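Hey, resending since the last one bounced:
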Amino acid sequence: MTEFLIAAKVNETGVLKKLKMSIFDIDIVNRMNLQQLEYIIAVDRLKSFSKAAKYCNVTQATLSTMVKKLEEELSVTLFDRKSNPVITTDIGAVLIKDAKKVVFQAGMMKDKAKTSGAVEGSVRIGMIPTVANSLLPKIIKPILKAYPKLHLEISEITTHSMVKQLKEGGIDMGILATPVDLGELEEEILYYETLMVYGDIKTNQAQYIVPEEIREHKIWLLEEGHCIREQFIKLCALRKKEDVPQNFSFEANSFDTLLSMVDTFGGLTLIPELYYQTLATAKKKNVRFFSTPVPVREVSLVYARPFARQRIIKALADIIRTIVGKDLLSNQYKKSELMIARI
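The structure tokens again:
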């Protein structure tokens, strides 16, 4: 029979005692409800009763009362309310960890109880700009056609902002380049796209190049905050040097601008495969591919448990993999011939 950690007390010496009891046999569990568990999870995540109330769409008084009632039922203090931001107590952290499992499983049960294949409702998605510019045109129409009752709210945001909003409930899921430190967030890897070099490499007219060949050229980078900038720097071990005239300083915010600058001033820049697919034939002639091991960008869908909408997540992940995966060059290589670019 499934067991659930439902109570803990501290004895006179301060030693924490964990009491494992059957979730079906203990009366205290019968007095608890999923709503209370959702409230304490929200307070723990947002470190604020007011923000948690707003996220749960209830008044702060209602949320505070329900949390207090739960603490009384469990005979424990879950949060230190005197601190700002609110601090979760040690026993609170233990109980909330299990509460997340219960809420997640309850959500899974609700999903299974719904009509098979029903993907509907509103979902808020954040995307990093260097993924959104080439991925969105490929996937939006097929997704809307496949799931006409699904309403998408998509915004372009940086990785740092995305992780923050996911943890605070500002968005439901995000699509970004990984691997990155996601903390408690979960991820579904969507695809691997090869990275390529755009520009004129006069020292080597071969189609394939190695990262070391790039270092002595002018390098054009996206501005700070774009993960592909860090991937380029680490991939090619770039050193700080003057890439353009001393009286001109510039960092782009899009691949289109980068390519225009390369065409005008010379030099090189790094582009991902999905963006390469959008280029005109004339510009594709200026692209060089890396020799093995081929650097690739890992793109993932990330979300926060336990409030994740699993049915929608799986549906979106599957359709994106189907649409994008069939045309990727990375599929032509063995896994041992690929190298995930670090961020």
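Residues 90-113 form the longest helix (24 residues).

Sorry for the duplicate.
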